[in-house]
Write a structure and sequence with these properties.
Keywords: Membrane, Transmembrane, Transmembrane helix
Radius of gyration: 31 Å
Number of strands: 8
Order of helices and strands: HEEEEEEEHHHEH
Shape: rod-shaped
CATH superfamily of the largest domain: Band 7 domain
CATH architecture of the largest domain: 2-Layer Sandwich
Pfam families: Band_7
Strand order of the largest sheet: 3-2-5
Distance between the termini: 122 Å
Largest sheet: 3 strands, antiparallel
InterPro entries: Band_7, Band_7/SPFH_dom_sf
Organism: Actinocorallia aurantiaca
Structural class: alpha+beta
Protein name: Band 7 domain-containing protein
CATH class of the largest domain: Alpha Beta
Helix content: 25-40%
Length: 187
C-alpha cells in the first residue's frame, strides 16, 4: 500500500452522497389534503394525489396545492332596489376544483374569485328591497351557486354577515339657550 490518497474510494463516496441527495430531492410526500402539480419545461405533466411521489430533480418542478376550504371576507358598497345604500360584509368559502389552474398563481386566483363573489353579493342586495334581504344562513348555498368557477376555485358558501346603512350627516342645530339670570348671578 502506498501513502497516496485513494481517489477511487473518495469518488465513490462523493458519488454515493450525490445520489443520496438526488433521491431525497426526488421523493415528495403529499398529504391527504394536498395535491402535487408537477411541471416539466413549463408544462404541467401531472397532478398527483396523496402519498409518496417521485419527481426528477432539475427537470421537474413541483408545487403543493392545499385543497382545504379557503375563506375570505368580502366588503361591497351598493344600493338596494328601494334605493337604500349600504355597506355589506360577507364571507365566502372556496374549494380548489382545478389544481392545475389554481397552482399557476394562487394569490391572483383567490383575488379574482373574491371579486366574482363580491359582484354576486352586490347583485343580490341590488335586486332586493332592504326588508327582503336574507340574513346569515338564509341563502348562502344559493348565492354560492351563482358565483362562477374562477381560476380553479369554486364557491361553496357565500353569506351576508352584516349590512350597515350610513345615515346622512346632518348637523343638529339647536339654539344655545340664554342663561337664566337667576342662575347666572354668583352673588
Amino acid at each position: 500500500m502506498s501513502d497516496e490518497p485513494d481517489y477511487l474510494t473518495g469518488s465513490l463516496v462523493a458519488g454515493a452522497l450525490l445520489a443520496l441527495l438526488a433521491l431525497v430531492a426526488a421523493v415528495w410526500r403529499v398529504g391527504p389534503e394536498e395535491r402535487l402539480v408537477v411541471r416539466r419545461s413549463g408544462r404541467i405533466r401531472a397532478v398527483t394525489g396523496p402519498g409518496l411521489r417521485l419527481i426528477i430533480p432539475l427537470l421537474d418542478r413541483a408545487t403543493r396545492v392545499s385543497v382545504r376550504p379557503l375563506q375570505a371576507d368580502l366588503w361591497c358598497r351598493t344600493g338596494s332596489r328601494d334605493d337604500v345604500f349600504a355597506l355589506a360584509q360577507g364571507r365566502v368559502t372556496f374549494t380548489v376544483s382545478d389544481p392545475r389552474r389554481y397552482a399557476s398563481d394562487p394569490d391572483a386566483a383567490l383575488a379574482r374569485a373574491c371579486r366574482a363573489a363580491e359582484q354576486v353579493l352586490c347583485g343580490h342586495i341590488a335586486s332586493r328591497e332592504l326588508g327582503d334581504l336574507s340574513w346569515p344562513g338564509g341563502q348562502s348555498r344559493t348565492l354560492a351557486a351563482r358565483v362562477p368557477e374562477t381560476a380553479g376555485l369554486t364557491a361553496v358558501d357565500l353569506e351576508l354577515l352584516d349590512l350597515e346603512i350610513p345615515l346622512r350627516h346632518q348637523p343638529v342645530r339647536s339654539p344655545v339657550p340664554d342663561p337664566d339670570p337667576e342662575e347666572a348671578s354668583w352673588n
